[in-house]
Amino acid sequence: MPDYKRYGIAGATFATVLITGQIMQTMSAPNRASAADVQAMPLPVAISDIELTAANDETLTTASLNSSSSVSQGTKQPLPSEACKVTLSATPVAAALVDLDLSAPCAPNERVVIHHNGMMFSDVTNNAGILSTTVPALSKAAIFIASFSGGEGAVANATVDDIDTYDRAVVQMQGDFSISLHAREFGADYGETRHIWNERPGDIVDGVTGHGGFMIALGNPSLENPLIAEVYSFPTGMAKEVGDITLSVDIEITSDNCNKDIEAQTLQTSRGEKIAVQTLDMSMPACDAVGDFLMLKKLVNDMKVSFN
Question: Up-side HSE of residue 249: CA atoms within 13 Å toward CB?
Answer without folding.
Answer: 29
